[in-house]
Amino acid sequence: MSKILIVRHGLTEFNSNRKFCGITDIDMSPEGYRQIEKARDRLAKQKIDTVFCSDLKRARVSAEIITAGRNLEIRTAPELREMNYGRCETMTWDEISKDFPDITENMIHRSLNLGFPEGESLNDLASRISRFAGVLKQYPPEQTVLVVGHSGPLGVLICTLLEFGIEAFWRFYIDNASLSIVNTYPDFAILNLLNDISHLDGLKELK
Hints:
- Helix content is 33%, strand content 16%.
- The protein contains 7 helices and 6 strands; from the N terminus they run E-H-H-E-H-E-H-H-H-E-H-E-E.
- It has a 6-stranded mixed sheet.
- Helix 4 crosses helix 5 and helix 6 crosses helix 7.
- The radius of gyration is 16 Å and the shape is globular.
């Protein structure tokens, strides 16, 4: 059995202001740093053999904080980047609703045809996450792999590992600094923990 520890990066100012932040390379907010420090403490006694993270700063720095002092190589994986929102990058929901109403309609109705102008579609995201999931399957039993990334890709990754299909994507939400755990076996995977933020008790929650 391989254990996959799945952690979303800490809060950003874009998250707080409900702005779409896909490939825009911003840092975490002070609150986000506090959240990730809590996640680090949560995992302090957890064995970690390998670390993958998105190459965007908010995920990369989160991985660095969580693994500080462990002498582990952090492997950046562009496949783990957040969805490219194209012309919708940095826009709020209300702004997108006004300028691109078809996009918000697709999201409201959980459409598998979701796509962003000059950006990616949900199917594009699923394809690159599928490639990354193939890398994870190469790890031997008894390995513990930490994956640090973004809400959309991590939700798709969980669907992919569990063989749920992309249609299940809309049924998952991944909070900032949350922990999910998937145990993988040669022929199947088990979801042991989903979107746990119990380690953030006492911190202001912003989604």
